[in-house]
Design brief:
By secondary structure, this protein is mainly alpha-helical. The chain has helices at about 1-15, 20-40, 50-60, 65-85, 115-120, 130-145, 145-150, 180-200, 220-230, 240-255, 260-265, 270-275, 280-290; strands at about 160, 165-170, 175-180. Strand 2 and strand 3 form a beta hairpin.
């Protein structure tokens, strides 16, 4: 079973182009499934039945996993079985008729405009790293990019003259996102005045560099956002993804259409983007008052 899982994960990487984090998530869920089957005395996937999968779901629930985690594990199992059938390791798909458990989608926590202003005002522009951090924060809020996408940005992904940035997202899908004037100014200042000094006469293609001239990790970006959130005295739990949520929420509040937002966020399915349609109640009241014939 482990060998077939490895083959499946390789298929996800080579043929489907899934991101490393997604493949790792599939691997963890499927390894847990294998361990569960082995404890039951099952050594081959072609010996499994539909009841084995449903029992595994109940097992995860008994372990205290939430509906989202159980749903994610079932997706991994279903996609793997489909692969095994397509590769003719199995004649029938025991997971084919299983439905995903219903889950409550948690609304993303977004910052208010005032909180965003406080966060972006945090970096000390009298220091090189402050100027770098300012550019990174402005970029994340201006584009809604994922932290992994920001960490992997190359200098030549930017077109400062045309004010847009090229981004490689999940599944190696490329998209182009406009840059606002605030982010553009912050990036130009960092690239012209700070980045050459961080390079220390070395060569590096990455846009954002550490004080040693190396690529900045996702974890460092995460810590940077946390640092400036504390400095701004924002009590909400904030991560780089919070800036992505705020980007999407604020655009929708100001009238952006869902399809355009989907393209900028890099969502393959518009239903993923629809979670951001939690426009504040005051705006809904204003729309109702403006357009309803009997306000």
């Amino acid at each position: 079973m482990k060998k077939q899982v490895e083959e499946f994960l390789n298929y996800l990487s080579v043929e489907r182009g899934l991101a490393k984090n997604s493949i790792s998530s599939y691997g963890r869920d499927l390894n847990n499934y294998i361990k569960y089957l082995e404890k039951k005395g099952t050594a081959f996937f072609n010996k499994t039945r539909r009841s084995d999968i449903t029992d595994f779901m109940h097992h995860l629930k008994d372990r205290g996993l939430n509906a989202n985690s159980i749903s994610r594990a079932l997706v991994a199992v279903k996609v793997m079985y489909r692969f095994l059938v397509n590769e003719r390791y199995l004649k029938e798909d025991p997971a084919g008729t299983l439905n995903l458990p219903k889950v409550w989608r948690k609304l993303p926590d977004a910052l208010s405009l005032e909180e965003v202003e406080r966060l972006l005002a945090g970096p000390n522009l009298k220091t090189p790293l402050g100027i770098r951090d300012k550019a990174a924060l402005e970029l994340m809020y201006a584009t809604g990019m994922r932290v992994s996408e920001v960490a992997n940005l190359k200098l030549n992904d930017l077109n400062l003259e045309m004010s847009f940035i090229k981004c490689i997202g999940k599944g190696q899908k490329e998209r182009v996102i406009p840059l606002g004037s605030y982010a553009l100014r912050a990036l130009v200042r960092y690239i012209d005045k700070i980045r050459p000094g961080l390079l220390k006469q070395k060569e590096a293609s990455e846009l954002f560099l550490s004080r040693l001239g190396r690529k900045i990790s996702r974890q460092t970006f995460w810590k940077t956002v946390k640092l400036y959130a504390r400095k701004a005295r924002i009590k909400k739990e904030i991560t780089p993804h919070t800036l992505r949520h705020s980007f999407a929420t604020h655009l929708l509040e100001r009238g952006a259409d869902l399809r355009t937002l989907q393209e900028m966020l890099g969502h393959s399915d518009v239903t993923t983007t629809q979670i951001y349609t939690h426009i504040n109640k005051e705006r809904l009241k204003q729309i109702h008052k403006k357009f309803h014939p009997r306000p």
